[in-house]
Request: fold
Amino acid sequence: MENDILRALRERRSIRRFKPEQIKDEELQAVLEAGTWAPTAKGLQDPWIIAVQRPDLVERIDRLNGEIWGHPHPFYGAPTIILVFGSDPAVWPNSFQDGSLVLGNMMLAAHAVGLGSCWINREYEMFRTPEGKELMQELGLETEGLAGIGALAVGYPASFPPSVKARKDNYFRIIK
Ligand SMILES: Cc1cc2nc3c(=O)[nH]c(=O)nc-3n(C[C@H](O)[C@H](O)[C@H](O)COP(=O)(O)O)c2cc1C
Reply:
C-alpha cells in the first residue's frame, strides 16, 4: 500500500545541519498542533510542549545539554528547540511513553511541512540540575513534579543524510 503518510513515515530522517533562518510561525504551529494529537495514556494529555525560539534561551539549552553530553552543540545550531515535559515518571508511569509519541508526531509533522528535525536526548538529566530547574521557571513551568522527556532541534535542513540504513532482517513477524 502507498499514500502520503506512509511515504512520510519512510522518508523522514534526522537532520543535523540547519540553515540559520528562523522557521515560519505557521510551520511551528503545524508541528506543535500535530504533537497535541498524539495518543496519551488514559487520554490525559499529560505532556507539556514548549517551543523555544528566543536566541539566548536556545543557546542556554544547547549549552546545558552539551555539558551533560560533552558535545559543543548538541542541537546542531537549530533556530528552534521544542522541549517536551511530562509528569514525574515515579508518579505517572506513562510519562515517557506519552512524551515520546508527542515527539514522534512532531518529527513527522516537521518533515511533512518541509522542516528538518532531530530528537535530542538528555532532557531528563538536564532538567534535574539546579540550572535546569531555573530554566524551567523561566519557561513558566513548575519545577517540581515535571520531568524532561525529550527535545527536538527544528529548522530548515541545510543537508540531508547521504544514505539510510536498511531495516534489519526480521524486524517484524506476522504470526497467524
Ligand atoms: C530516544 C532517541 C534519542 C535520540 N537522541 C539523539 C541525540 O541526542 N542526538 C542526535 O543527534 N540524535 C538522536 N536521536 C536520533 C537517532 O540517532 C536517529 O533517529 C537514528 O539514528 C535513525 O535515523 P533517522 O531518524 O534518520 O531514521 C535520537 C533518537 C531517539 C529515538
User: Anything to note?
Assistant: The mean pLDDT is 97.
